[in-house]
Amino acid sequence: MQITRVKCILTAPANIGLAVVKVETSEPGLYGVGCATFTQRLLLVRSAVEEYLNPLLVGRDPHQIEDIWQLCYQNSYWRNGPALNNALSGVDQALWDIKGKLANLPLYQLLGGKVRPAAALYRHADGLDPQEVLDNVLRLQAEGYQYIRCQMGGYGGIGKEAPQPGSYNNVAVYGGSGRRRPGHTQPGDYFDPDLYARSIPALFEFIRSKIGFATQLLHDVHERLAPIDAVRLAKALEPYRLFFLEDPLAPEDQEWFKMIRQHATTPIAMGELFTHPLEWKPLIVNQLIDFIRVHLSDIGGITPARKLATLCEAFGVRTAFHGPGDVSPVGHAANLHLDVVVPNFGIQEFSGFDAALEEVFPGCPQVHDGFLYPNEAPGLGIDIDERLAARYPLHPDLLQFRNGVGDWTQSRLPDGTLWRP
Ligand code: GCO
Ligand code: MG
Asked: Does residue 346 sit in helix, strand or coil?
């Protein structure tokens, strides 16, 4: 049996650009699918898949997953990075899908079998004020969710202000903080880290006073704070007993995790931006984080993720794989097959599937009462209907990530400095 073609399909059923790799084989009707979604740079991933990996892999034996993974990883000499890792993940997940189809077993069986029937999920509650966040928490509780992430005003918090280039003395900004901006700042998604950091303990005080402590609560800092302010926030949130505080620091600020540990017992989750083993290794072996939340396709797929989960197991770190809307349903299925087999599973982030996604991706895993259940079909148990996928082409702006200058990946501090989104 040989690989006959490796291609990359781009589609946006829920208006988020997704990339899915299909590996076809010489066996009639036998193929696999894998998630390769790097929504901000989809064209780079497609080029890596179709112009580099396809010629490298055609003619090879699809059984040899580890060898093919190592080949794709080493072949460019310079390795890692989100574009190459996503392309590699697409191939890797598709090969595991094929392996399951050949064995006529769902992937979780090949990975050792279930240690739990389903994965507990966390969903996101947001709102512009504490009451609106609470309303969304109550709605998710009523739907059966026992883990809820609370944000107020999205990443960077409340009080964001529309850009006003060239104007002086903008006083009444940032939700009444009175912080001023210098003149002639550039357009961007302005936020005030201080106002944000102060608003979050107050939010959790309010939510806990209304719902008590039975439901687990989480929060994502999304690297918006200066390191010492992240330390301060982790400490301030202790009384509200978070399940975890997510991405309190940027990967570049690694050394500061020690400081968080010295000052706070709030559990720490980290890693959706990781693409290189050297980013996670020190944090795990020095027990500086509690949950690893890598984005499976950004580290290269199932093959490295199961090794990473095993490394974490040895150091008491639990998994919390990244599960936003810019993971395709194929990627969510891959997360789930690992979630049900790893002993050190923590939680699974989930963004929900709308009707269009369910239609384009037959076999989407199903949610019951806050848990996500894998299906019993062989391999990943999910497919892509290419004809339907083509009905949701990417608008050129989505395809090339030509988002407006005021958009969220052009975040700025009150004085105009560009900051991490
Ligand atoms: C999360 C994430 C996402 C990312 C997104 C970037 O925790 O779900 O932070 O919302 O921002 O995946 O494209
Ligand atoms: Mg996050």
From this structure: coil
Whether residue 170 is predicted with pLDDT greater than 50 in this model: the reply is no
Tell me, in angstroms, the distance from the centre of ligand 1 to residue 316's CA: 25
Of residues 40 and 402, which shows the higher confidence score?
Answer: 40
Residues 6+ apart with CB under 8 A from 233: 197, 200, 201, 221, 225, 245, 248
Position 167 scores a pLDDT of: 38
Active site residue 52: no
Answer CATH for 119-379 from 3.30.870.10, 3.40.120.10, 2.40.440.10, 3.20.20.120: 3.20.20.120
For ligand 1, atom 9: residue with the closest CA = 222
pLDDT band at 188 (very low <50, low <70, confident <90, very high): confident
In the structure encoding, which two tokens stand for residue 307, read together?
Answer: 């090794």
Q: Is the CB of 220 under 6 A from ligand 1?
A: yes
Instruction: Please work out whether the CB of residue 297 comes within 6 Å of at least one atom of ligand 1.
Output: no
Residue 164 confidence (pLDDT): 46
Residue 225 has which token pair?
């704070």
> Is any atom of ligand 1 closer than 6 Å to the C-beta of 39?
yes
Parse the chain into domains and list their residue ranges. 119-379
